[in-house]
Amino acid sequence: MKIQVLKVTRDCGVAAAERAAEILRNAIAAKGHASFIAATGASQFEFLKALTGQISIDWERTTMYHLDEYIGLPEDHPACFRRYLRERLIDQVHPGVVHLIRGDAEDPYAECLRLSGIISQEEIDVAFVGIGENGHLAFNDPPADFDTEDPYILVELDEACRKQQLGEDWFPSLDEVPRRAISMSIRQIMKSQTIVCTVPDRRKARAVKQCLEGEVSHWYPASILRKHPNAFVYLDRDSASLLQKK
User: Fold this and answer.
1) How confident is the model over 72-98, as a mean pLDDT?
2) Residues 101, 189, 122, 57: is their CA dihedral positive or negative?
3) What is the pLDDT of residue 55?
4) Ordered domains of the chain (ranges, CATH)
5) Is 65 helix (H, G, I), strand (E, B) or coil?
6) Which one of 79, 182, 244, 246 is at 20 to 30 Å from 150 when CA atoms are compared?
7) Which pairing describes strands 126-129 and 194-199: parallel, antiparallel, or unpaired?
8) Can you give the pTM of this predicted structure?
9) Signed CA dihedral, 23, 128, 183, 78: sign only
10) Is residue 126 a contact partner of residue 19, using CB atoms and an 8 Å limit?
């Protein structure tokens, strides 16, 4: 296993944010600029709160890329990830350049091509990600495509993923959870120089066990992180509770 798994007794989001801030500061110091990928969801609440509280990052020298977004949701919808990122990250620290996924674009495939053309021109210093209850990485639900070279792809959301969004109170009913999304691909995520993965909460424990102790498989998409040379996975006691390797 190449990844470093860190189980912390305090909030794992705070520890992950300290690592993330260090990576951003070092990239800016080395080359004058840092690029990063931002995730959303309940698992990122404390991480983003702690990260945006870091006063030593020159955010004007950063470029943000958006990890995934529902197809068809307007930006004012409570579950829209663009809204989430504006409220919890963009409006807090004002990154120099922001590339958001327009999930309500008239042509989602053209939107994938637009974003793919942009990100393919840049080396990504760090990706901030989580692990879904079904083991997904971004919106790459099982069985995830480990082979596509396209940076952004159209995906179908499985029922487990959609139920997680309902369970986190983003939607009032399962019928209202979108069935399609635009997601950064597995290979594009893995091209990041460093990956910081934050996974709190007992409801993620089974997925954590499958991804960290089972086979590396497209049936457990986040298991691919074990193939990355510089990935850090931050767990709390609850999310690490089923792991055999203590």
Assistant:
1) 97
2) positive
3) 87
4) 4-235 (3.40.50.1360)
5) strand
6) 79
7) parallel
8) 0.95
9) negative
10) no
